[in-house]
C-alpha cells in the first residue's frame, strides 16, 4: 500500500509521523501516518465536550445510584459480630477488622449492567477483588473474567469456568505464563508491542489477539495508558507484524483509566478502535476484526452516564446491525464490587491532643485493607459503628468531613503499623468523643482493598468476611 493511497483513505488522518504498512504480506513500506483522528465522526472533540455537558444537564437520573445495599442486614451482622468480641479477654486477632460482603448488591449491579449495556459482555477484572465467593457468584451470573497472571487464570479455571470465558488481559506477559495459557487453552489475550508478538508466536501461536491502544486517561483516578497501550502511530507496525507472523488478530482493546470521570475518552477511544478495525480490513486486507474490548473504568456513581456515552459511541462506530459482526466485551472491576463491601475496624488506641482533638489508632490501615488510599487514591469515609455501648450504623451524621455544631470532635485516624505513612485521614470530625474499644465502619471498600492487603509489620490483614446473600441470609 502506498502512502498516497493511505492519505486518500484517511484524508486528515495520515500526516507527519512514521509507521509501517505492509503490502500484502510483502516487504514493509514506511508511510507517514498521524492516524485515527478522522474516522467519520458525528462530533469533533470540542463539540463532544459541549454535547456531554448538555447530556449531563438533560439527564438528572445519571446521578441516581441504582444500588440498594442491604443496610438492615449489614448493620445486624456488624452488630452481632462485634457483640461477640470482648476486648478485655479476647485472643490476639479476635478483634481484627472484618468485612460484610453483600452478594445481593453484586446481583443488583449485574442487573443494572445488563439494563444499561445490553450489548456488552463483562469480563470481570479479577485483580480488583479475587475473593472466591465473589468470583463464584459472578461466574454463576454468566460474567466472564479478565485475568492478568497465571494465578488468576488458575483460580478462575479452578472454579470450573471454561477457558473461552477468560481474557488474559495483560499486554506484557511472562513467557512461562504464556506457555501456561497455551496449555490451558486460554486463547484471548492482549498485546501492545512487537516483542510480545514474537513471544506469542513462539509460545502460543493460536492466540486470539487484541491490540490494546492507548487512551487519553489524564483525568482518571488511576491512569493506565502511561504504562500500557500502543499509540496510534505504532498501530500499523503492530498490525503489520501480526500479518507477517500470521497471528490471529481478532480485536482491539482499550482502558480509559480506573475511576474515569471524563467519558469523552470512551467516545474517542471507540472512534480510534474503529480506525484500527478499518485499517486492518481495508489497508492490510486481513480478516475483519470481530471483537471490541472497551476495558474497565466504570464506577457505580457515574455508571449511567458512562453507559450512555459508550452506547452512543457504539451506535455510531459499531452499530448493532447485520452488516456489523462485532461483539463487544468489557473488563469492569471496581463497578462490580466496590459498593458491596463494608469494613468494620476497632479503635485500639487514642492520644488526646487537646480537649476537642485526638489521634485515633485503628486496627486496619494503608498496609492492610485500606491500601486503596495509597494505590488507588481512594478516600474511605469513617463512620461510627459503636460507641459507649450504643450502635450508630444508621446515624448519617456520626461523622463529617467538616467541623459543625454536631460534629465537634476533631480526629486524625491512623492504622496500626509503626509507619507514619499509615494514616487513613488527617482530619475528620466526630459527633462522639471516641474511646478505645469503639468501632468505626467504612462503606464502599470492595475494590482494590483486600486484594493488595499486606501483613507488613506483623499485622495479619486477612480480614474475616461475613457474606450475606440476596435474601439477607448469612453464607455459612
Ligand atoms: C487491563 C485492565 N482491565 C480492567 C481493569 C479494571 O479496571 P476498573 O476496576 O477500573 O474497572 C484494570 C485495572 O487496572 C486493568 O488494568
UniProtKB/TrEMBL annotation:
Its cofactor is pyridoxal 5'-phosphate. Keywords: Cytoplasm, Decarboxylase, Lyase, Polyamine biosynthesis, Pyridoxal phosphate. The keyword Phosphoprotein does not apply. Its main location: cytoplasm. Residues 103-338 form the Orn/DAP/Arg decarboxylase 2 N-terminal domain. It comes from the Eukaryota. The active site is at residue 418. One of its GO terms (molecular function) is ornithine decarboxylase activity. It is found in: Cytoplasm. Its EC number is 4.1.1.17. It catalyses: L-ornithine + H(+) = putrescine + CO2. Pathway: Amine and polyamine biosynthesis; putrescine biosynthesis via L-ornithine pathway; putrescine from L-ornithine: step 1/1. It holds the Pfam family Orn_Arg_deC_N. GO terms for cellular component: cytoplasm. Homodimer. Only the dimer is catalytically active, as the active sites are constructed of residues from both monomers. This is Ornithine decarboxylase.
